Amino acid sequence: MTDRREGAPLPDYAIDVQNLGVRYNLRLTRQTTVRTSFRDLLKKREGPSHFWALRDVSFRVVHGESLAVIGPNGAGKSTLLQVLAGIIQPNEGAVDVVGHVSSLLTLGAGFDADLSGRDNIRLAGAFLGIPHKVMEEKLPGIVDFADLGEFIDASIKTYSSGMRARLGFSIATAVDPDVLIIDEVLATGDAVFRAKSKQRIIELTKHAKAIVLVTHDMSWVTEFCNRAMLLDHGHVIMEGPPADVVKLHEERSEKARIEREAELARRIAAVEGNQPTTAG
Amino acid sequence: MATTAEARPLRAARRPGALELIQTGFREIWSHRRLTRYLVRADLKKHGADTVLGNIWWVLDPLLQMVVYVVLVDFIFHVGTPDYPLFVFSAILPWKWFSSAVNDGISSVTSRERIIKQVKFPKIVLPVAATVGGVVSFAFGLIPLLAMMVLFFSDRLSWYLLLIPAIAAVQFVFSLACAVLVAGVNVFFRDIANVARHALRLWFYLSPALYSYEAVAGRLDGWVGRILALNPWTPLFESYRNVIYDETMPNWPWLFALLVVSTIFLGLAMVFFKRVEPAFAKVL
What we know:
The complex is a heterodimer. By secondary structure, chain A is of the alpha/beta class. Chain A has helices spanning about 25-30, 35-40, 75-85, 115-125, 130-145, 160-175, 190-205, 220-225, 240-280; strands at about 15-25, 50-60, 65-70, 90-100, 100-105, 180-185, 210-215, 225-230, 235-240. The relative contact order of chain A is 0.15. By secondary structure, chain B is mostly helical. Chain B has helices at about 20-30, 35-50, 55-75, 85-110, 115, 125-150, 165-190, 190-205, 215, 220-230, 235-245, 250-275, 280-284, and one strand at about 5-10. In chain B, α2 crosses α6 (about 125-150) and α6 (about 125-150) runs antiparallel to α7 (about 165-190).
């Protein structure tokens, strides 16, 4: 970036997270209505009033690094990305993100289904706060990269999920971010586009941009990322080289799977154990 | 790129003061004015594209509503004033804008749930877009108003009609305050749309829309009279009717008082909205 404020010393990291904690108030996150509020006034609610989605999370990402965040469902991965993007305020600790952040977290999920692809690019640019002139300059490049042909002028509701993801990826990476944050990297997408996006990601890391992404596709992690972090129940389990972290994650998931199956087998056995007495 | 290049520390920050919140709110509205424009345009495209007659409905809708009231009040109850169609149309037109601002404002934040969870942007633009969107249908409604006046009520045409934008400006401030308030409340109480539907209807009938204020002011005492006197829509309906129907100046002191009250109300609504805004991404 050329317009960095002169004189202001820039830190040598892109992202610095210290003892981050994010708490959810369960009373508020349940869908409340006036009706349920009246009901709750009469009846005291039981159970915990809040839970920590993230706790004691600390890490740093330097320029040129791409960090993969992996972990089981509900580990706090998406919450972490939302904090980095500034969408959620932390309850504890400090988050410092240097530079302009591009976050189209779940690619294409926020599109307006009734508008055309082209209109959605403009709308996304406005949501991201990109100046109109800059966005108009980037528009042909985004359209080109998404490679949707005539569909670019059709309304988004006619798109397949892969097409949405392609458009989302094109926008998120074209806006020239210092820090790129992506959730669920290309869960869909064909081989050609995959190769193209790999190229894009490598280019971005070369330009000393920092990337943080969440994915369930472990081959992405080992192929494109130079670091990985395993989250579970809001805590960092391990951080380090992608291959090692992926290995631990797979071991843990395997263990969890075996435990679940054993539990299931026990329950089936318990049910079947009762069966003969009732059947005679 | 002209974006924030300096470090952005995000700590459990101190609570900003009320004036600071209002200032931030207005700055955000201004810096994201293009987003507002896109949102309004997207909304209009949707409404126009999906119906056969498209934008014709914006012209027809207030006219049809006028017919309903003329039949009811003039033909059945025989209590209408002279030129009653014009009388009631001058009330329907601004009210349609107001009710659409409130109704669209209610869902403005909750319907953008997905983008709110993905991108950091000032959520205040959403109720602003809902209010601005109503301006377009209001402007379209002026076409049948003028057509009607030229064709049937040409003796009531006057230069006072040019004062409509001034009255609309006061209405805008008041509508915006209402939209910002309900947009924030609806995130936490999702069923206020059900309440609003009936509250708006009651509000319309408790305002001098189908009747003039003078006609009832003397007769009504107690709480109905008081509501009517303190109702923000009393000066608004009366002012619109002054310039459209009565060919007179609006009651400026009354209108100005409403502007002051609305501005204060808008400030309070914005403070409320900005205070609850950080919770949106978590609650939605």
